[in-house]
Model the fold of this input.
Amino acid sequence: MKFFVILATVFVFATADLSPFREACKNELNIPEASIENYKRWQFNDEHSACYIECIFKKMGLFTDGNFNLDLLAQKLKGDDKTEEEIKPEIEKCIDNSITNHCDKAFNGFKCFKEKNLYRVQQSAHKH
Done:
């Protein structure tokens, strides 16, 4: 079950056309082009990474007012074998509500999904 949630979440992030979001977030946050190129290769290891992920998630509607949009995530992640209500507890396991900084909270959730199955994350991203 965890594998499905992780893979589905990554699929949502990797398969979306991120070009307009990347450009908007780059401009809003004044992120150098070199960092954006690293992010396209799933290398999120600089001081801009956390706020960039928060910005992308916000543009996708996955993160609003400092919180993950569980309903939208569940809607996007449900499969033929799981309902939205059945998938929500799995999503919630990667959300740390003790984190008050919005950038850090979004990035921590993203890393939780990504780190659980990095090979699948990168495999999905390279398809697009």
About this structure: The chain has one domain: 2-126. Residues 1-12, 117-128 have pLDDT under 50 and may be disordered. The chain has eight helices and two strands.
